């Protein structure tokens, strides 16, 4: 085995090591979560060290359904917000809506991207101004990926509309709300999504 193959691996090998799909590994590579370079033929080679670092910090579990198990169709919501107090408020309020929801939370864009790759939510609610990868970068990373299909994105931010536009704006279809968090409007959005889902059953 050459030194290159010892230090680097293919995208498929990285996906197998991380226990995720090939597309998820590609997304993490494109967003910089996994360090990689391209060969002259255009193939990615991923640093095994970066795979090990991701495994050490965020181990991604495999989801193995039990044979014959019937899963309840619950709606998945991901909240990305760096304010821990506000995250707790999100979880408390949403839990009291009495709707069939599963809520995950992330403290920044990197954590949010990892959770999207692990289990794509139906709705992502995100702040914009966050340390590290902010909401703008998170949304742009998802904009051209397959994970964006079927996923609603709502932005709740302390930035005003002029600030958002000055920083490049948001893709079409992304809803924007100013803080404080408009829980009444968010509940209406979620209820509408659940109603549309029920109509297809």
From TrEMBL:
One of its GO terms (molecular function) is DNA binding. InterPro entries: Bact_response_regulator (IPR050595), CheY-like_superfamily (IPR011006), DNA-bd_dom_put_sf (IPR009061), HTH_17 (IPR041657), Sig_transdc_resp-reg_receiver (IPR001789), SinI_DNA-bd (IPR010093). SMART domains: REC. GO terms for biological process: phosphorelay signal transduction system. The keyword Oxidoreductase does not apply. The modification 4-aspartylphosphate is found at residue 127. It comes from the Bacteria. The keyword Transferase does not apply. Gene3D superfamilies: 1.10.1660.10, 3.40.50.2300. Coiled coil: none annotated. Residues 76-194 form the Response regulatory domain. It holds the Pfam family HTH_17. Keywords: Phosphoprotein, Two-component regulatory system. This is Response regulator receiver protein.
